[in-house]
Every structure is written in C-alpha cells, then in structure tokens.
C-alpha cells in the first residue's frame, strides 16, 4: 500500500483522512507515569514515555483531562478550562508534550468536557450567586415541586449516573440545578448561545491555538435536553428516581449544536473529533453523527459491546449479567458493517478508563497461560477490525483487573462508591454481595490502577516508599512492560507486530468490509475481511481477503476449513499470523486451535 490514497467502497477515490489509519492511545494522566514522586502520574512522566508509545506504533495520544479540577470525578469536573491541574504539570508542560509528539510525527488530542463544569468553576459560582446574574441561564435552574403533603421535590424524577437525583437543591437562590452526573458537576445550558460561544472559545480554541490536534469529546450527545422537562415513565417501581436517558440524550437540538461546533471550531482548525456516544444503540441513530456529509463528528465511541455484562444501566449496572460469545459477535458485526458503502466512519476499542480490563472481561486471566493467549487474541481481534483503533494504557501489556481479594477500600471511583453506598443504605445484604461481585468485574477503578512499568517497588510508576493514589497491582513483578519489552513473544511484542500488520494490510484491516461467519458458534469467533481495493482490472472477485479465526474458549477446538471460508483454491491460503509463540507454530498443529489461539489467513501470497 504505502500511499495515502484508497478506494472508497462505492468506487469513489479520494484522500484518506490521516485519522482513519492512525492508532490512538488513551493516557489516564493520574496513573501513567509519576515523574516527581508525589504518587500521581503527570505530564513530564508522560513525556518521558513518548518514545515507548512511538516504538509500539502509536500515532496519536489522547490525554484524559489534565485541567484544573477538584478531582471529584478524576478531572471530568473542570474548574478552569485554561489551567493545568498542578499535580499534572503546567501549560508549558502541555506545550512541550505537543512538541515532543509532533517532532516524532505523532499527534495529541485532549478531552473536551463541556456537558458540565465543576461546581467550583467561576461560571457556576456566578450563576448560582443570584437569579439575576448574567450567567444564571448558563446552567439549568428550575423551581421545586411539592407533593400533596407539601414536601419539596425535584423538578423531575430523573435518576443521575452516580445514583441519586439529577437535581441538586441550592439554598441560596431556592432553586434546583440539573446535574446528570455528580452534584459537583452542574450541566451547562447549551440552549444559551452566549454560553456555547464561551465554550468554543474558552475550552476549545484556546487549546487548538496551542497546537493540539483535536478532541475526544465527552458525553457528546447530552448537550440538548428536552426543554419541557417531563417526568420519566416509572420503569423501576421500587426506586426513588427513574432512568430517563430519552429526556437528555440525543435531544431535539443535538445535531444543530454539534454541527455548529464542527463548522465554527473543529473544521477551521482541521481538528479531529471522536465523540463519546452513550445510550445510542441503533445504527440509524448513530449514523447522522458520523456521516461526513453531515459535518458533525469524525467518529464516535458506541458502547453496546463494551457494556456486555453490565446489568440495567441506571439501577442495576453493577449486578453482573453474563453474556454469550454469540452476543458479543453480533454486536461487533452490527458496528463493523453499519458504515459499509456510506460516507461514515467508526472506531474500534475494547477498553477505556470507564471499564474493567478486556483480558479479565472478554478473555480469560485465570491462569498465566490463558492470560497470555487471550490477551494476544484480543490484540489480534482489535487489530483486524475496520475503523480507527483506540488502545487504552496497559492494554498492550495485558493489564488485568485488580485482584478479587482487594476490598471496597481500594475502590476510589465516585460511581463505584455511589452504587455501593446506595445498596448498603438499602440494607439488602444479597444485593450488596451482588454489587461487590459486579464491581470486581466491571468497576471503572480497574483500568485506573498505576501502569506496571517494571519490577521495582511501586512498579516503576512512582518511587519506592511513596503511596500511589491507587494501589499498584500485586502482580507487577511478573506483569510489566520492561519484562515484555525484552521478549518479542510477549503480549506487548504481539501488539507491536499486529499494529505493523494492520498498517501493512490497511486496505483489509482498517478499511475492509466485514463478514461474520458462524454467528451462532459459542466457541469460535470468525470473520472474513475483504479489501477496499480491487486488484487489477478483474471482476468483483479480485479482492484480497483475510480470514480471522479465534478460539474464545479454554479448550482446543477444531480449525474450520480455511480454503472454503476464503473461497480460494486448495492450498491457496497463507497463514499471516498466529498468537502462538514462534516455536509452537508448525503444520501439525494447523488442524487444531489451541485454547484462546487466534490466527489470520490470507487468500494471496505474502
Ligand atoms: C464520561 C467520562 C467519565 C465521566 C463522565 C462525566 O462518561 O468518560 O469518566 O465520569 O463522562 O464527565
Ligand atoms: Ca507526579
């Protein structure tokens, strides 16, 4: 390939935007690398590891919020968009990070958190100071309701993300303000044009002018709420507050707002955008956001796959709900194919800072062998899917969930503790146990453990003797980057190899079409990827194909007939890669897939 031109699936030939082929890597600043021994990761620490990321094959760093913040939701509660949280560094450090990335041909995107601010943001302080303050309308204020007994009630019955109501009472002005997340995260009022203009200037242009390359856009579909503020239907009869996503997700003006953001800010800077699009499970709802013609977002994160295992989102989220391989495959197939033949684009990811570790959820980390095999198969799976690939820090070394023996005191996340305290208060012992079980698999805390760099005390994340902000995984001596860097057969070595292959065969892996095979099979995950480029002048048949076969079980499985699946003459298939260690690959074990083995075959010569 080598060129940056490719054939659009429906025949249109054009220049591929750089971000389609790029590999993005999310850095959670508190947990990546501490440079000054205070137990918190920081930007200088990140800068010291840019070469590690470069070597791995990362093109773009997405840095989670490093702005001034009271840190009640780890920086997703911003009190000053233009200042850097002192523990993370300074503006100069960000400037240097931009420079260090750019000098290696890499890019940097920041997190844009503009559905809400912190309650400590000066905008909110002004807004809450009086009903007549010019910024009163920058947030969503409503008078109380009263029940028949005269008790004060919130304006609606909506349940917020972190448990409790979406409304917080303000004594001083005797009104409620809306907060979809914590009470310390008041929602901005996007209906107010002056407020939107301030967001664009203050939170966006300021950073784009400093040279960053775009944004991951937090909670992107929640800016437009229903302005009649109706009660949600009662779907959880025993709960005080009701799930109400249809009241504040994908609201009436959402496409107008995002289009405005694109045309007024992102577009003029040529900035890349990836939006966090939760509660939007239908392709027909997602497509308008990512169609190039609509000029809204370049791509979004869609969550039905990563939500597997979660119970009811707004109440029983942490009551674990086991899922089958066929349902996982179905979700992947839906989202792999929904942009085929259109001008839309999509993302590929299986981890982020809001979820448990992929190897612990979708793989099998019950023994060292299965851990290694399944972490590699996850790498092979992700690297062969169509769309822009996002990795989360530590995924590339197969970092695992925290040990099951750790107690609730190791969980720091506001959401984990919100759900836990809620069930404890309910007094339902069974539900407390069930919630703890769910948290051990699904909690947002797992991915926030310090990065395991090496086998020195505190895993090389911070100095010996320092108390890191979250406890270091017990297993860091065996599972760390430095150990794996020495070994090309490690999980890290395998990620590096897969990222290279992904680029080399980008017409198949990044841009190809996807066809799921054996959808009902509960052991094997198999699909055929077909190149977006036609070779030679031949008919439709002249496209290069890859067959991906993965054993998603801990038992050996018979390998299906590869030639048939690829539609090539007998013996015409070539093994491109297997997750087995080199010395284990031989024609004799072709017929059988080992536990958690994954392979890719091609229908053409390498
Ligand atoms: C997004 C973030 C999450 C945060 C929430 C509120 O979902 O990913 O971490 O808690 O927004 O800003
Ligand atoms: Ca530090």
From TrEMBL:
Domain Glycosyl hydrolase family 13 catalytic: from-to ranges: 26-448
Top-rank lineage group of the source organism: Eukaryota
Gene Ontology terms, MF aspect: alpha-1,4-glucosidase activity; alpha-amylase activity; glucan 1,4-alpha-maltotriohydrolase activity; oligo-1,6-glucosidase activity; sucrose alpha-glucosidase activity
UniProt source species: Chaetomidium leptoderma
Record family assignment: Belongs to the glycosyl hydrolase 13 family.
SUPFAM superfamilies per the UniProt record, alphabetical: (Trans)glycosidases (SSF51445), Glycosyl hydrolase domain (SSF51011)
GO BP, one annotated term: maltose catabolic process
InterPro entries on file: GH, GH13_cat_dom, Glyco_hydro_b, O16G_dom_2
Annotated catalysed reactions: Hydrolysis of terminal, non-reducing (1->4)-linked alpha-D-glucose residues with release of alpha-D-glucose
Catalytic activity, EC: 3.2.1.20
Protein name as it appears in the record: Alpha-glucosidase
Group of enzyme by EC: hydrolase
UniProt key word Cell membrane: no
Keywords linked to the UniProt accession: Glycosidase, Hydrolase, Maltose metabolism
């Amino acid at each position: 390939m080598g060129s940056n031109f490719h054939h659009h699936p429906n025949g249109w030939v054009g220049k591929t935007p750089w971000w389609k082929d790029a590999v993005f890597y999310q850095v959670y600043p508190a947990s990546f690398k501490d440079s000054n021994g205070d137990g918190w990761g920081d930007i200088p620490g990140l800068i010291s590891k840019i070469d590690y990321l470069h070597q791995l094959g990362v093109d773009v760093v997405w840095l989670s919020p490093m702005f001034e913040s009271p840190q009640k939701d780890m920086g997703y509660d911003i009190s000053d968009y233009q200042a850097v949280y002192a523990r993370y560094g300074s503006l100069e450090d960000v400037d240097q990070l931009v420079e260090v990335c750019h000098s290696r041909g890499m890019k940097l995107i920041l997190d844009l958190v503009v559905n809400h601010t912190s309650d400590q943001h000066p905008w909110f302080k002004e807004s809450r100071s009086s009903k007549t303050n010019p910024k009163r309308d920058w947030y969503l204020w409503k008078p109380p309701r009263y029940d028949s007994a005269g008790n004060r009630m919130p304006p609606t019955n909506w349940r917020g993300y972190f448990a409790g109501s979406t409304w917080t009472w303000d004594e001083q002005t005797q009104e409620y303000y809306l907060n979809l997340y914590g009470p310390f995260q008041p929602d901005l009022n996007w209906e107010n044009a002056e407020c939107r203009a301030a967001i664009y200037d203050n939170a966006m242009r300021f950073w784009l002018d400093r040279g960053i390359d775009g944004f991951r856009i937090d909670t992107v579909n929640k800016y437009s709420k229903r302005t009649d503020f109706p009660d949600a239907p009662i779907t959880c009869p025993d709960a005080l507050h009701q799930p109400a996503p249809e009241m504040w997700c994908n609201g009436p003006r959402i496409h107008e707002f995002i289009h405005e953001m694109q045309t007024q800010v992102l577009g003029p800077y040529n900035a890349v955008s990836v939006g966090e699009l939760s509660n939007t499970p239908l392709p027909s709802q997602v497509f308008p956001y990512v169609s190039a013609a609509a000029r809204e977002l370049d791509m979004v994160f869609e969550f039905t796959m990563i939500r597997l295992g979660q119970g009811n989102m707004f109440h029983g989220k942490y009551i674990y709900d086991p899922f089958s391989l066929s349902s996982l495959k179905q979700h992947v197939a839906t989202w792999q194919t929904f942009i085929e033949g259109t001008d839309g684009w999509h993302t590929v990811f299986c981890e982020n800072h809001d979820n448990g570790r992929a190897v612990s959820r979708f793989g099998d980390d019950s023994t060292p062998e299965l851990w290694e095999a399944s972490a590699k198969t996850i790498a092979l799976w992700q690297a062969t899917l169509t769309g822009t690939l996002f990795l989360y820090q530590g995924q590339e070394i197969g970092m695992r969930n925290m040990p099951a023996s750790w107690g609730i005191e190791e969980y720091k996340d506001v959401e984990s503790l919100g759900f836990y305290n809620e069930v404890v208060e309910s007094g339902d012992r069974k539900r407390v146990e069930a919630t703890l079980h769910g948290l051990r698999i699904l909690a947002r805390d797992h991915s926030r453990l310090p990065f395991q760099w090496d086998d020195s005390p505190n895993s090389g994340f911070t100095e010996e003797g320092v108390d890191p902000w979250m406890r270091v995984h017990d297993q860091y001596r065996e599972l760390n980057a430095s150990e794996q860097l020495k070994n090309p057969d490690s999980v890290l070595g395998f990620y590096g190899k897969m990222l290279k292959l992904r680029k080399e065969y980008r017409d198949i892996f990044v841009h190809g079409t996807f066809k799921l095979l054996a959808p009902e099979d509960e052991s094997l995950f198999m699909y055929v990827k077909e190149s977006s480029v036609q070779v030679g002048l031949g008919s439709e048949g002249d496209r290069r194909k890859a067959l991906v076969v993965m054993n998603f079980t801990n038992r050996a499985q018979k390998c299906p007939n590869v030639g048939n699946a690829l539609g090539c003459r007998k013996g015409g298939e070539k093994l491109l890669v297997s997750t087995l260690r080199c010395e284990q690959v031989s024609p004799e074990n072709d017929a059988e897939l080992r536990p958690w083995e994954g392979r890719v075959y091609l229908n053409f010569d390498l």
